Amino acid sequence: MAKTEITENSDRSALKIDSSQPLSRSLDDTIALFRRIFSSDGTLRIRVIENAHDKRIRCGIIYVDGMIDRDLIQNGITKPIMTYEFTDEDGSNPAELMETIRTRVINICDIIASTKLDELIGAVVGGKTIFFLDGYAGALNINAQGWETRAIEEPSTDKAIRGPREGFNESLLTNLTLIRRRVQNSDLKFVFTDIGTRSKTQTCICYLESLASPDILKELQGRLARVEIDHLLDTGYLAELIRDEPYSPFEMIGSTERPDSVVSKIMEGRIALLIEGSPFALTLPYVFVENFQASEDYYINYSFATFNRLLRVIGAFMSISIPAVYVALVTYSQEMVPTLLLLSIATARLSVPFPTIVEAFLMLTIFEILREAGARIPNSIGQAVSIVGALVLGQAAVDARIVSAPMVIVVGLTGITTLLNPRLTGPLIIVRILLLLASFFFGIYGYFFGLLGLVIHLMSLRSFGVSYMLGVGSIRPQDIKDTAVRAPWWDMYLRPAVIGARNMRRKQPKRQAKR
Amino acid sequence: MKTLSKVLSALLSAVMLISLSGCWNYSEIDDMNIVAGVAIDKNKKENNLQLTVEMVDTQEGMQQSQASFKMISLSGNTIFDIARNMISLTGKKLLWSHAKVIILSEEVAREGLIKVIDWYSRDTETRADVFLFVSSEKNAHEVLNLNSETKTIISYELAQMMNDETFTSTAPVVQIWDFIDKLESSGDNAIAPLIYMYEKNGQKNEHVNGTAVFVRDRMVGKLNGDETKYALFAKNKIKGGVLEVENAKGTPTYSLEILSSRTKVKPKWVDGRLEMQIHTVTHTGLDEAMSAEGFAGEETIQAIAERAGESLQQNILSVIRKMQREYHADIFGFGEIVHEEMPRTWRKLKDKWPEEFTGLDVKVRSEIIIQSTAKSSRTIKLGD
C-alpha cells in the first residue's frame, strides 16, 4: 500500500505538472499539457475546430468520452462555432471574442468561465466539456454531461404495499429531484461537499433550514470534514465513518432507499445525506424506534399500523429470546416448564447425541448459512436453497435424531421473527448469540442478566447527541405517539421531542385551530 | 499495542471467569428420570421405610403417542438416602420438580408424618405444591401400581382429579405446604384426602373420597365422603358440589348444585361459655327433580330450600360433634378464628385448646338460596 503511493508520487513528479500553473495563451500548448496529464487515458477526446468565416477563431474542446451528451456538443458547441459569422462588433481581442462565444454562440445553458488548471482537470473527469480559444489564457467549463443511469424503480428494500413506488437510483441529481418534488419549498437546502481524496465523491447534505437543529448540522459538517478516506462507494462507508458508538452492533444512522421516507424524516427535523453512486440515503439522528417503523405504517389505517408495529417489537424480542430461554429452561430450570411440555421435550431429546446448547448453535448456524446463501444467489436457484434447507436438512436431521424436533421449532421461530425486522437483522443475531451464551452458562439467571446488559447498552447510546432510546420508557402520551404505536395523523400535531425541538408544531391542534 | 493487550486481558479474564465457574447447575433433561409421584410405606421386614416412585418412561413414549411409566421401589432408613440410592437402580438422576402426588400409607400416617415429609419440604429439588394423600389400602404403593391396570400415569391422573375436586367436594384438596402449615398452627388440625382402590366389573380404578383426620402429626381417624362435604362447609372451603334434598315424604328427590357458598364463623361469649356461631349461605341451582309431578305446584321452591337448609344444618352439626367427641381434632380451624377475633381469650385458651374444643358449644344456621332451576322451569310432564 505504502509502496504504491511512493511510486505514484514519483510518477507525478516525473511529469512535473504543477496544477496551479497559469494557463498558456497558446491552444497547442494547452492541448499538449492536457495530453501529458491524461497520458494513458484512452477515453480523453480532444478536438480542434475552426470557424468557417473567421480564421482567428480556432478553438479546442476537451472531454471524456462516455460522460457527455454527443448531440448536445454537436448542436450546442461545434456547429455554432463553425458556422457563426463573426463581425467586428463581436470583438477584436481574444478576451472579447471569448465573451461573445460564451454569451452568443454556444447554445448550452450551463457554462462557467475558468482560468484555473486544477478546476478544469476536475471538470473534465467529472464529465464536463472544456472549451479553449487560441490566444486566450482561459477556458469555458461547459456542462454537457450525459450518461446512462438506472431508471427509477420500486425499491427492493423497504417494500410497501400502499404508498409511493419510487426508489432512489445511483444518480445523485435524480435522487435530489425525487426529494425536491415532494418538498416544493425554498426552505429545503442542499449543501454539496466532495468526500474521498481520490474518488472526490459528490456528497449532499439535505435538510429543512427552519426545522433542522443547527447544532446537529454543525456536528455533522464537522464530522464530514474530518472523514479521511480515499473513496466512497456507498453511504455505508460514510455511515460507519461518522457514526457514534463505533463498537455497538446497533445502527446509529438510518438508511433508506425511499424518497418518501427521507422526506418524512426531514420533516421531523432530521438531516439526510446522499452521495453520488448510492441509492441509499442516510438520515440522522437515528433512534431505536425507527428500526420498527416501516414507511407503509404511515399510509395505512393507524390501528392496523400499530398492530403491525407491536408485532415487530414482539418479534424482535422473541428473536433474541427464544433460543436463550429454551436452553435455560431445558438445561437449568426444568421445573418452570409445564409438565406435559417437558415430557414431550424429554421424549424428543432422547437419543439425540448432542447437548442442547450444541444443538442450538448447530441449528442457528445452519439457519444463518441458509439465510446468507439465499441472500446472494440468483432468484432462479433461491427455491432450491429453501427446499434443500428446510425440507431435506430439517426433516432428515429430525428423522435421523441428530437434532430434536423442538429445537427445529425454536430455530424456525427465531428465523421467522428475525425477518419481521429487516433493519435489525445484524444486531439481533449478535445479541441472540450473546444471550444464548449467557443462558448456557448461568441459566435463566444469565439470560436476565444478559437482557439487563442489553438495556443498559441501549440506554447509553446516543446518535448525534440524541438519546438512542428516545421515547422508549416514557409515559408521556406525546412521546409515544410514533413509537411502538402509530397515532393517527390528526393527533400527531407535534414533532418528536429533541429532534424537532426547533419548531415543534407540525400543525395547529384542532382545538386551537377552531378559535 | 497497549489497547490490544488491554482488550486481550479483558477477553482472557472473561473467558476464565465463565469457563472456570463452569456451567452452574447444568443438566440435560434426557439425562434425568422425571418423577411423577411417590408412595411411602413401612417396610415391616426390616422395620424401615419403603419408597415407591412412579416415573415417566420417555423411552416407551417414543413409540407410543402417550407417555408410559416405570416403577421403582427401594427401602432404607431415611427418605433422602433412598432417593439418592435410586440412582443406582435407574442409572439416571431423578427429577423431582415435576412430581405431582405423594401417597402415604395409613400405617405411616398413624405413626407420625413429620419424619417422612420433612425431606420433601426441605429439599431444594422437590416442590411444596404436591398433593398429599393417605392410602386407605394396606399399602400406599398399591395405588400407584394401579397404572399397570389403567395404562396411564396414575400420579398425573390424581393431580388432574384434585384440580376437579371442587365440583364434588367429597375430599379435601391438600398440598404439602398447606399440610405443614396446619401442623405448625396450634388452633387448627391437619387433614388429608383418603385414597382407595375401587373395583367394579373387574376394572380397578383409584378413588379419592373422604378425609384422614390428624391430631398433631398422627392420623387418628377418617371421615367418609359425605361427612367430608359437611366438614368443608364448616371450614368455608366449599366451591361446588351437589346437595341432595328429600321431598316431603322423605325420599331423596331433588339435587341442588352448589354455585357458591360462604361460611362465617363467629366466636361469642354466651352465659360465660364460648360458643361458635356458624352461619352458612349457599347459593344453589335446582338441577334435578326426580319427580313426575311439577314441583312448583306441590312444593314451593322456598320449601325445598328450607328443607335443604335444615338438613345441611344438622349434618354440619353432627360432623362437628363427631370431631369433638371421637377425635378431639379441631379440623375446622376454630382455634385460629378465636385467635384472630379474641386474641386475649386465646392467650388463656391456647394451651388447653384440645380439651376446650371438645366442650365447645356450637350453633349452626344454614341458609340455602335456590337461584334458578337450570334450563327448565318445570318438570318433565308425562303425556296422556
UniProtKB/TrEMBL annotation, chain A:
Transmembrane segments: 310-332, 352-370, 377-396, 402-421, 433-459
Gene coding for it: gerBA_6
Entry-linked InterPro entries: Spore_Ger, UPF0353/GerABKA_families
Keywords: Membrane, Transmembrane, Transmembrane helix
Organism: Paenibacillus auburnensis
Domain of life: Bacteria
UniProt keyword 4Fe-4S, yes or no: no
Keyword Transmembrane listed: yes
Entry's family note: Belongs to the GerABKA family.
Protein name in UniProt: Spore germination protein B1
UniProtKB/TrEMBL annotation, chain B:
Gene3D superfamilies with a match to the protein in the record: Nutrient germinant receptor protein C, domain 3
Annotated signal peptide: 1-26
Keywords from the UniProt entry: Germination, Lipoprotein, Membrane, Palmitate, Signal
Membrane topology: Lipid-anchor
Subcellular location, principal: membrane
Top-level taxon of origin: Bacteria
Spore germination GerAC-like C-terminal domain span: 209-373
A Pfam family per the record: Spore_GerAC
Residues in Spore germination protein N-terminal domain copies: 26-195
Subcellular localization, as worded in the UniProt entry: Membrane
NCBIfam families according to UniProt: spore_ger_x_C
Sequence similarity: Belongs to the GerABKC lipoprotein family.
Protein name, per record: Spore germination protein B3
Organism for this UniProt entry: Paenibacillus auburnensis
Gene designation: gerBC_9
